[in-house]
């Protein structure tokens, strides 16, 4: 599938984060592909209002990947067809989420303990060849059951277009380090594109990951929080060996655009509340960030928050980073 060639940089699905405004911002800063938040397959086929709203997107986000979670093959297939009808370009099936509320339903990373169920899901999807799909997994459930290679082969045998893999185990959650050596060893034996994810926070780390045999692209998640320009930085570094600095005037313009997009997408009040969360990430690591975060979460109006931002960011405006 064309979207998975030429080492794409992909915005990872992150619950409560990768809504349409954040996806648009990532695309503006060079992401080749973006993925929705994890969407319940059952909620989608039951026409749940909030679930259907998660399919909302803008043309800029295309080709859009919609990620679904669930464990029932026919429900996943029906939801995939529904998402395609809504405009999705590709469907991703989540088989890697380690969060307890997903695991207890038998979905997400719990599927890594049930290869027979994974096979049933892939068989159901392959019965509808009009569904272009990928899967997203972890290296395995735990270190005694590393089975990404087996799942990669199942995906290839059943027509998946690519696999996304975060080489931590499910039980690690986000602790420890992603095992890129394991992913490289497994990816080099896989016939379909393997997109790697995990611990990519700088252009140097991205270039190192892309230099590994079998890694067909990267998926950036937490590394892009507060840094949607990371995609652009990585591309510049790979092309030219250096990253031209983005000054704080440009960054602040992007931050304000994010706020505007959130208000347009969610309404002024909800957009305001969501923006405060993102603003905490934008300020991370800067002088006075801890006190600033306390102030922004205590703010209750657009005017108050705008004033706090002016005081905090003004000294940085002329400083390239």
What does this structure look like?
This protein is of the alpha/beta class and 321 residues long. It folds into two domains: 2-240, TIM Barrel (Alpha-Beta Barrel), CATH 3.20.20; 248-316, Non-ribosomal Peptide Synthetase Peptidyl Carrier Protein, Chain A. It has 14 helices and nine strands. The protein has helices at residues 20-28, 41-45, 49-53, 73-85, 100-103, 115-126, 148-157, 180-187, 203-210, 230-240, 248-266, 268-282, 289-298, 302-313, and strands at 9-11, 33-35, 39-40, 64-69, 90-95, 133-140, 162-169, 194-197, 215-220. It has an eight-stranded parallel β-barrel, surrounded by five helices. Strand 6, helix 7 (148-157) and strand 7 (162-169) form a beta-alpha-beta unit. Helix 9 (203-210) crosses helix 10 (230-240). The radius of gyration is 20 Å and the shape is globular.
Secondary structure elements and pairings:
Layout (H helix, E strand, L loop, with lengths): L8 E3 L8 H9 L4 E3 L3 E2 H5 L3 H5 L10 E6 L3 H13 L4 E6 L4 H4 L11 H12 L6 E8 L7 H10 L4 E8 L10 H8 L6 E4 L5 H8 L4 E6 L9 H11 L7 H19 L1 H15 L6 H10 L3 H12 L8
Parallel strand pairs: 1-2, 1-9, 2-4, 3-4, 4-5, 5-6, 6-7, 7-8, 8-9
Helix pairs in contact: 1-11, 4-6, 9-10, 11-12, 12-13
Q: Which labels suit this protein?
A:
single chain, 321 residues, alpha/beta, 8-stranded parallel β-barrel, 9 strands
């Amino acid at each position: 599938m064309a979207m998975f060639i030429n080492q794409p940089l992909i915005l990872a699905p992150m619950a409560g984060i990768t809504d349409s405004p954040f996806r648009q911002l990532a695309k503006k800063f060079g992401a080749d592909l973006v993925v929705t938040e994890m969407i319940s397959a059952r909620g989608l086929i039951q026409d749940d209002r909030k679930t259907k709203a998660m399919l909302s997107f803008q043309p800029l986000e295309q080709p859009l990947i919609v990620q679904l979670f669930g464990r029932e093959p026919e429900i996943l297939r029906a939801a995939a067809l529904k998402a395609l009808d809504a405009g999705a370009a590709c469907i991703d099936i989540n088989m890697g989420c380690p969060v307890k509320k997903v695991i207890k339903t038998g979905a997400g990373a719990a599927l890594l303990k049930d290869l027979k169920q994974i096979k049933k899901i892939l068989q159901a999807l392959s019965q509808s060849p009009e569904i272009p799909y990928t899967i997203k997994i972890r290296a395995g459930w735990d270190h005694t059951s590393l089975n990404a290679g087996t799942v990669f082969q199942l995906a290839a045998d059943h027509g998946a277009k690519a696999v996304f893999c975060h080489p931590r185990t499910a039980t690690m959650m986000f602790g420890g380090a992603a095992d890129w050596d394991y992913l490289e060893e497994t990816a080099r034996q896989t016939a379909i594109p393997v997109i790697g994810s995990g611990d990519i926070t700088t252009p140097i780390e991205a270039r190192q990951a892309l230099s590994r045999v079998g890694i067909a692209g990267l998926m950036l998640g937490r590394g892009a929080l507060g840094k949607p320009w990371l995609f652009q930085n990585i591309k510049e570094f790979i092309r030219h060996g250096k990253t031209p600095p983005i000054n704080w005037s440009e960054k602040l313009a992007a931050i304000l655009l994010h706020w505007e997009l959130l208000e347009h997408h969610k309404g002024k009040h909800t957009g305001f509340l969501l923006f405060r969360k993102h603003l905490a990430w934008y300020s991370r690591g800067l002088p006075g960030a801890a006190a600033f975060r306390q102030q922004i979460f205590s703010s209750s109006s657009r005017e108050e928050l705008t004033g706090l931002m002016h005081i905090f960011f003004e000294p940085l405006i002329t400083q390239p980073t």
